[in-house]
Amino acid sequence: MTASPHAPVLIAEVIEALSPKPGETMIDATFGAGGYTRAILSTGAEVIALDRDPTVQPHADAVAKDFPGKFTLVRTPFSGLTEAFEGSGKARLDGAVFDIGVSSMQLDQAERGFSFMRDGPLDMRMSDQGLTAADIVNTYEHGPLAHLIKLYGEERQSGRIATAILRRRQSQAFTRTLDLAEVVEKALGGRRGAPTHPATRTFQALRIAVNDELGELEAGLAAAEASLSPGGRLAVVTFHSLEDRIVKAFFTERSGNAPGGSRHAPVAVETRKPSFTLLFKGAREAGEDELAANPRARSARLRAGVRTDAPVWRAAA
């Protein structure tokens, strides 16, 4: 069996939440190097894997060889989950797992442009289509650029960073990752012993914007709700607060645990039945052994639920 170059986080907890069984069908919405997929396939279940990254194909070929007839890869983002499942011809979907964000495998590939620690083209696309990070930093005006960095990077100095980017691009366009990282670092006054690189939040913001990660997450959760059969399990692993807020709000609302209005402003009685029951309260985190072996797990959070037989919740108009 081919080893995975990327260790999936919270793998034991994810498999416990999904509880895959022989003959069941599961979706791995973030195939990557196939870590979750292999663990699910090893239980006897079948997997439909999704990934918009064309570079994962060699890993998919290896999985298909090791588990013939049990695995299919569909090149699509989260928003294509329903179509991928319907195209499989399967009668029911018993589980789905999402591992949100950029993988260490992508960060390690300098040519992808995700890392501020390795020089590469300023790209950041998980697929091979759409705007690049270079397109954004070279064309956005100050206001929209500062807003993007603040919103998606939670960067308090977004205005100062946007000013530095616009000033520099007047003489030379940005094309390389280390070039942008240096400009951001100087704009924030250098590292000064900071535990994280000053460009961390800016690079996160650009990556999220380039790939519409939060929009795709919301669309993927809705697609999973629509596609999972009653009793189907949904497990979602997040790595930063923006993602986790979306997932937490989704499960809180869909499980009927959203807070009501105050006595001064009561809300209309909710008639929709919960479409999920929570597998456990709150989020699960990595244990000490996993943290020692895989530092990437430090910020990981797992939330999970079980699909009820209630109708799909439609977004408010």
TrEMBL record:
GO CC annotation: cytoplasm
Signal peptide bounds: none
InterPro entries (alphabetical): RsmH (IPR002903), SAM-dep_MeTrfase_MraW_recog (IPR023397), SAM-dependent_MTases_sf (IPR029063)
Key word Metal-binding present: no
Entry-linked Gene3D superfamilies: Putative methyltransferase TM0872, insert domain, Vaccinia Virus protein VP39
Catalytic activity as recorded in UniProt: cytidine(1402) in 16S rRNA + S-adenosyl-L-methionine = N(4)-methylcytidine(1402) in 16S rRNA + S-adenosyl-L-homocysteine + H(+)
Gene Ontology MF term list: rRNA (cytosine-N4-)-methyltransferase activity
Top-level EC class: transferase
Domain of life of the organism encoding this protein: Bacteria
Keyword Transferase: yes
Binding site for S-adenosyl-L-methionine: G34, G35, Y36, D51, F78, D99, Q106
Enzyme Commission code(s) on record: 2.1.1.199
Subcellular location: Cytoplasm
GO biological process: rRNA base methylation
Keywords tagged on the record: Cytoplasm, Methyltransferase, rRNA processing, S-adenosyl-L-methionine, Transferase
Reported function: Specifically methylates the N4 position of cytidine in position 1402 (C1402) of 16S rRNA.
Annotated family: Belongs to the methyltransferase superfamily. RsmH family.
Protein name: Ribosomal RNA small subunit methyltransferase H
